[in-house]
Task: structure prediction
Amino acid sequence: MSKIIDGKAISEQIKREIAAEVANMIDHGQNAPHLAAVIVGDDGASKTYVASKEKACHSVGMTSSVYRLPESTTEAELLQTVEFLNNDPEIDGYIIQLPLPKHINEEKVIAAIKPEKDVDGFTSVNAGRMQLGLPCYIPATPNGIMELIKRSEIETSGKNVVVIGRSNIVGTPMAILMSRKGIDSTVTLCHSRTKNLPEIVRHADIVVVAIGKQGFLTADMVKPGAVVIDVGIHRIEDPTSPKGYKIMGDADYDEVAKVASMITPVPGGVGPMTIVSLLQNTLKAAKGEVYPK
Ligand code: GUN
Result:
C-alpha cells in the first residue's frame, strides 16, 4: 500500500509559516498583505472558491476584499474594476475568479491585469517569465504540486515524469517546472491525441494526472513504486454520504494506491495546496519579491 501525501497537513504547516511572516511584517509597522478577488455573477462553485480564499486570508492575518459584480456587468465595466485594482496602492495582488459570464472576453480581461498584481500567474508576462525561469507568479495548482514534491522529499533528478493533460493552468506549467534545472526530470506531456498513453505512463516514476476525467488513471497504467499526483476534482452522487455526494479524482484511487509508492488523495491532496499557493504569491507580492517595489 502506498504512503499518502497529506496535502491537508502540509498546507496547514505552510499556513503557519505564512502567518508567522505576516505577524512579523505587522510587528515591523508594515501593512498586512492584501489580496482582492473579483467575482462576476452567481456561479455556485466560484462563490465557494472565493469564500475559501477569503477565509484562508484571514486565517493567516492577511487582508482580503471581494468585489462582487452582477452577471449583467459589461466587459467595459469589468475592465474599469481591473484598472481600479491595478492602481490601488492598498492592494498587493488580486484575482479575477473564472469562469466569467459568456459575454465577457476572458483573454482580454486577463491581459488587462497588471503582472505585478497577477497572483494567479495567468497573464502572458508571468507565463513567459515562468518559461524563461525568471522571477514570476506561478499558478496555484502547479505551485502547490511543486511544494508537495519538495516537502515530501520526492526525488526528481533524472526521473521520468509523465504529465497527463496540457491545460494552460496545470499540465503545461507542470511540464515546464519539472524539467527546470534543479528539478531535472525528463518530462513527457500526454494529452487527448497521445497514442499508446498507458504504455507511456507505465514508464513514469512520477505521474501527474490532470485530464479532468474521473477514474482515468487505472492501476495497470502505473509502474509499481511510482509516485502519483492526482489533480482531478469530481463531485460524484453518493446517497450513502450525508452530503449526497463524494469527491473523487482522476485516478482510480483504491486500486492505484496498491501499486504506487506515494499518492495524493482526493480530497486532501492537491486541493488544499492551491489556496495556500495563492497566499504564498500574495505574500511575495506584498514583499516585492517577484517585482521589486
Ligand atoms: N477558477 C477555477 N480555478 C481558478 C483559479 O485558480 N483562479 C481563478 N481566478 N479562477 C479559477
Notes: The domain at 29-114 is CATH 3.40.50.10860 (Rossmann fold). The radius of gyration is 19 Å. The chain has a mean pLDDT of 98. The pocket of guanine is lined by residues 95-98, 120, 140 (CB under 6 Å).
